[in-house]
Amino acid sequence: MTTTIDEQDANNNDLVSKVKVKHAELEQMKERFAKLLLGEDMSGGGKGVSSALALTNAITNLAASVFGEQHKLAPMPEDRKRRWRREVGWLLSVTDYIVEFVASQQAGKDGSNMEIMMTQQRGDLRMNIAALKKLDAMLIGCLDNFRDQNQFWYVSKDADESEKGVQRNDKWWLPTVKVPAEGLSEESRKWMQYQKDCVNQVLKASMAINAQILGEMEIPENYIDTLPKNGRETLGDSIYKSITVDFFDPSQFLMTMDLSSELNVLDLKNKIEASIVIWKRKMNQKDSKSSWSSGISMEKREQFEERAETILILLKQRFPGLPQSSLEICKIESNKDVGHAVLESYSRVLESLASTVMNRIEDVLYADNVAQDPSLLAKKMSTSARVRVATSEDNDETPGHSPGQTPTESMTLSDFMGWSVDQEQEESNTKNGDSSPKQVEENENEKYQSYSARILARTKNSYMEKLGGIGLRSPTTRH
């Protein structure tokens, strides 16, 4: 009898705890929606932002708090996983009430059919929300797959140098990766590559959806008012001449640009996007006598725009963690479409998480390569040393660098962030170190042409055309 009473007390305590948790969640949900309704201005002073921007900020801040500490290939803690699913579900529920009218057939009592108008969720939301939820589940499922792995492990950044593992990049705050002395097993290596391919598909799909939504957002007038009247003034003479030459190689164009810092890459992206807006505006106003008219033919301007679009795609592929451009920020801040706000922010945070997981997988694969070929680590250290020496010698002569710049700042953004960009180029330069100038030039031209051919082959097909089975539209434009 005593045992039964104890069990009843335990059950009652569990029930009370569950009720308290549900009540706390309900109060939290009320607070979140109240903040959205007031446009993040809880004082009620009428200084809040639009509902669309409030939703964008809510999803972005939620993702930052949930995924901000995902430094390892390991399952997310269950409490964080539940919080993400619960709170992102609250924010996505807003789209259930964004509807459109569709024709439908209704049978009358007398057996006759008549056409009536019914409401259903807006088409783009119905399609893309389901796809993004699937991508979300795939990413979290990928992290869950690393639950029982024992082929690699992490060592704290505070450990002794002798105990630390391999660091692929200069992110000293991340834990280092260690693998067995002989490297990963063949089965584990193939499994890791399969996980990387899956995450890569998620990354491409989320990038495509985000680009599609940003492309559908209207360009604000306040952004257009800040633009010059021609593309040459926006790009500058040097970049303009490089884009408008008869033979244009996008990869060689990027090789000539100063991409040594994130600020420089973002500045180039801003210039390219501004020039695209100007050229499109001139084409749309070709018959008017506005100040946007120009003597350049329509065919030429369309060709320049296609080249600029290709450059934007390459920048997005090479630097997936690049901050938003001025045009993107202006679009998001001026956007009043709640549906677009949800799709843009949800796809953006999934793109960011997929990029993070991809980098963590590449860290493990790099540690495996070093275990099989320790000379890779020595080559990396010697390369870093050469960069530091070159920086100290050329610091006062290199354009765009201040005299007090640190060695790290002179490295390319790819080196600093750990992105594996154009590793073939380093190997080619090493092989050609003792070659004649003519042979080096021939090898460089061959390298540029082959690399350009691969890039152009990739850009001919949209991201979504490579993702059979997801069933989403291809983005008509990147921006």
UniProtKB/TrEMBL annotation:
Q: Does the keyword NAD apply?
A: no
Q: What keywords would UniProt list here? A: Guanine-nucleotide releasing factor
Coiled-coil zones:
none
The keyword Manganese is annotated on this UniProt entry = no
According to the UniProt entry, its GO molecular function terms are: guanyl-nucleotide exchange factor activity
Q: Where is the composition biased (Polar residues)?
A: 403-413
Q: Cite the PROSITE patterns for this sequence.
A: PRONE
Query: Residue limits of the PRONE domain?
Result: 16-378
Q: Which InterPro entries match?
A: PRONE_dom (IPR005512), RopGEF (IPR038937)
The segments labelled Disordered in the record are: 381-453
User: Which PANTHER family did the record assign?
Assistant: ROP GUANINE NUCLEOTIDE EXCHANGE FACTOR 1, ROP GUANINE NUCLEOTIDE EXCHANGE FACTOR 12
Report what the protein is called.
Answer: PRONE domain-containing protein
